[in-house]
Amino acid sequence: MICDTLANLSFYKGIHPNLDTAIDYLLSHDLSELQTGRNVVDGDQVFINVMDAAYHAAGTGTFEAHRTYADIQISFTGDESIGWLPLGVFPDWDANEESGLFADFPKDHAILPMKKDHFVIMFPQDAHAPGIGEGKGRKAVVKVKVK
Question: How confident is the model at residue 70 (pLDDT cuts 50, 70, 90)?
Fold first, then answer.
């Protein structure tokens, strides 16, 4: 997991070629111009889901994880937090599933504030619970195939 500001995004180039593609796109495009829904950058290798998300209280909702994709989560409104735990906390994930949702919300998770112009990268080993906050907010989730 990486949490930083968009001003430092270029420091993370070199981790994976598809992550480089995503970073280059994010640094050269105005994200506020993206349409709600799926925005294709490089087919199924890199795409951006833009959404208006309803938030939920801390300690509620679900954790999620993805086997082959990393998520770069970016809050446009700066009022969301994301829970984080190592995926090993959820040993019952079906090995054949791409995505896993875990409704049992552990109490000992980290909470990362997503301020405007911040981002977080969640890799396949990172279980995460997005959407912690009040009301609604607009965000982008960049899906980057890393496996």
Answer: very high
How far apart are alpha carbons 23 and 10 in whole angstroms? Answer: 7
Residue 88 pLDDT level (bands cut at 50, 70, 90):
confident
In angstroms, the CA 137 to CA 79 distance is 7
Interior/surface letters 32-54, b for 16+ CB within 10 angstroms, e for the rest: eeeeeeebebeeebbbbebeebe
Dihedral sign for Cα atoms in the order 75, 77, 79, 80: negative
CA distances from 107 to 2, 22, 126 (A): 21, 33, 16
Q: In what helix (H) or strand (E) does residue 2 lie, and over which residues does it extend?
A: strand 2-5
Query: Where does the pLDDT of residue 23 fall: very low under 50, low under 70, confident under 90, or very high at 90 and above?
Result: very high
